[in-house]
Design brief:
alpha/beta; Quinone Oxidoreductase, Chain A, domain 1; Rossmann fold; 2 domains; six-stranded parallel β-sheet; oxidoreductase; metal-binding
Length: 395
């Protein structure tokens, strides 16, 4: 039997590489004939993983991390009809059954059958059904015919694997945020956060035809990288109100569309620099989005945040100025991304050279044993997206 190794949450601020069980085609005590086992080609470190590692969730020690999985099929259950051994596939981070009413309506992010505690499942993530993560050498994927996106040409896919591995989460998530914010040809967009999701969203806005894409952050390296592929940027450390900086770029202190790519671990700026303010981005969105505009919120918000400084925030209760959003008739779009809604179209955009998402997020390949270093560097704020290559398959 092959051995397997994975990256596990060790405790606040720590992950470790350890030997884990080789996956079986099983769900608990019963066979999983609709599943496959993948040899992992790439598995990325996500900002959502960092929330757990920082101790900002109720994740238990020992959890094997990783929900951004691309791999080669090496074993199929007897009920798998259309996916074959040898196929190179992208795995949506959403675990979805394909059978429930939500899946049938395209809401694979809130599948009703893959998590006993709440709608929606994900690999290697707290409170998302207990599915084993994919920052490992091998992983089991259930409901394979429904979930997996097969790349049509394996050799072509390997040539573009750094771009294609972003289809599991970050690219569809950024794209979803843009779509939900109403981005279209000629839009003026503000994206809060220049981390990998924010940069993926910026690239998505360009793909959708936005006229001006503005990215705001306090991290100078990330802002510089956003400018490198045509974004306008706002430096939240310079003391100038966001509205004024918006007006300097577009002539008026408002935008058509707003995308929150920060989430609950937001901090203040200006007079509130360094202070945890989990609702600041949401309140900013309502202040600078035009009346009748839409606000996409792919940034993560949680029901429990044990590391919060305020008691209310520990229960996911935030102080937002909702009356302003109501008065301006804003539309708010929240929740995890239904990856399957977008990944095939975005795959085609990559394969036909319409977008270079790996460049936009500044992807860097690391080995599985170097993953702890990747987590440490990512947490320090480097302008990179770390792609784990467990088997040395990425040239």
């Amino acid at each position: 039997m092959c051995k397997n190794h994975g990256i596990a949450y060790k405790g606040t601020g720590e992950v470790e590489l350890k030997e884990i069980d080789y996956p079986k085609l099983a769900l608990g005590d019963r066979k999983c004939e609709h599943g496959v086992i993948l040899k992992i080609v790439a598995s990325n470190i996500c900002g959502s993983d960092q929330h757990m590692v920082r101790g900002r969730t109720t994740a238990e020690k020992g959890l094997v991390l990783g929900h951004e999985i691309t791999g080669e099929v090496i074993e199929c259950g007897s009920d798998v009809e259309y996916i074959k051994i040898g196929d190179l596939v992208s795995v949506p981070f959403n675990v979805a059954c394909g059978r429930c009413v939500n899946c049938k309506n395209g809401l694979t992010n809130i599948c009703l059958n893959v998590n006993g505690d709440r709608p929606g499942g994900a690999y290697g993530y707290v409170d998302m059904g207990g599915w084993i993560g994919g920052q490992a050498e091998y992983v089991m994927i259930p409901y394979a015919d429904f979930n997996l996106l097969k790349f049509p040409d394996k050799d072509q896919a390997m040539e573009k694997i750094l771009d294609l591995t972003m289809l599991t989460d970050i690219f569809p998530t950024g794209f979803h945020g843009a779509v939900m914010a109403g981005v279209t040809a000629g839009s003026v967009v503000y994206i809060a956060g220049a981390g990998p999701v924010g940069l993926a969203c910026a690239s998505s806005c360009q793909l959708l035809g936005a006229a001006i894409v503005i990215v705001g952050d306090m991290n100078q390296a990330r802002l510089a990288h956003a400018r490198s592929f045509g974004c306008e940027t706002i430096d939240l450390t310079n003391g100038i109100p966001v509205e004024e900086q918006i007006a300097m770029i577009v002539g008026i202190p408002e935008v058509d569309c707003f995308v929150d790519c920060v989430g609950f671990e937001a901090t203040g700026h200006g007079a509130n620099a360094g202070k945890e303010m989990p609702a600041i981005v949401l309140n900013q969105a309502m202040a600078i989005t035009k009346a009748g505009g839409a606000i996409g919120i792919p940034g993560l918000y949680v029901t429990e945040d044990p590391g919060a400084t305020e008691e209310s925030a520990k229960q996911g209760s935030l102080k937002i100025r909702f009356g302003l959003g109501w008065a301006k008739s804003h539309s708010f779009h929240t929740g995890q991304t239904p990856v399957m809604k977008y990944h095939r179209q975005l795959m085609n955009a990559i394969l036909h050279d319409k977008v270079n998402i790996a460049k936009a997020v500044n992807a860097e390949v690391i080995s599985l044993k170097d993953a702890p270093r990747g987590y440490e560097e990512f947490d320090s704020g480097v302008a990179k997206k770390f792609v784990i290559d467990p088997h040395g398959m990425i040239v």
